[in-house]
Amino acid sequence: MRTPDAFAGLTMTDAELAAQLAEVAGRILIEVRASGMFHGKALGRAGDQTANEFLCHALREQRPEDGLLSEESKDTEERLSCSRVWIVDPVDGTREYGEERTDWAVHVALCVDGKPEVGAVALPGLDCVLRSDVSGKLPPAAEHPRMVVSRTRPAKEALAVAEAIGGQIVEMGSAGAKAMAVVRGEAEIYLHTGGQYEWDSAAPVAVALAHGLHASRVDGSPLVYNQADTYMPDLLICRPEWAERVLAEVAKLDA
Q: What are the binding positions for Mg(2+) in this chain (predicted)?
C-alpha cells in the first residue's frame, strides 16, 4: 500500500493527485473493513478517521499552499482566503460502508475560486475510480428515465418529479454512488433536495461536469463551493437532455 510518504518526490497534476488519493484511500478503507476488528458504526468511525488522516496528511504534503476542507476535520476560516481549496469526504456513505455494501465512495475535489475544477470519486466496492480528467462518451440513455434517490430517506420532491416525467425510482446509498450511477449510465437523473454539505457533492459534480452532464442547484443556479457556510440545500445532476424538464417540474412544485 502506498503511504503518504510514498508521494514524496512525485510530480503529479492536480487531477492525477486527486485520483491517486481517492484510489489509495479506498484501498485503505477496504483493508480496515477486511481486518474484522470493527463492525457496524464502529467500522464507519474507524474508516472515516483512518482515511481522513491519510488524505489530509497527503494533501498538506503535496499541496501545502492550498486550502483544505474535510468532513472529518475541524473547519477553519483559513481556507476562505484561498483561491484553491481541496474538498474531501473520506467516506461518503458511512452507513453503507459499515454495512459492507458497495454503494459508498471516497471524494477528492479541487475547487478554484468556488468552482469544482478537478475531482475524483472512488467506488472501492466496485474497484472503480471516476475522474474529471478521464472522460468518455456517455452510455445510451434508457427509454424511460431512471432517477436515483436515497435508499433510506428519498426526497418527496424527487419522488414527485419522477412520477411527473414517468421515471423509474432507483434506491441507492451515498451521494457519490448516486452521482456516479448517472456518469456510468446506470441512471439518468440524480435530484436531491434534502440538504447536503460541500464535501458531499464537490468531487461528484467535478466528475459529472467533465463527462458532459448537467449539474446545478434545483433552481438552475450554479453550485458554488468554499463558502463560510458549507451547507448546500439541493442538487441536480442529470443527463443534459433531461435538465430543462426536471428544473421545470421542480419549479412547479414550488409555485
A: 71, 89, 92, 200
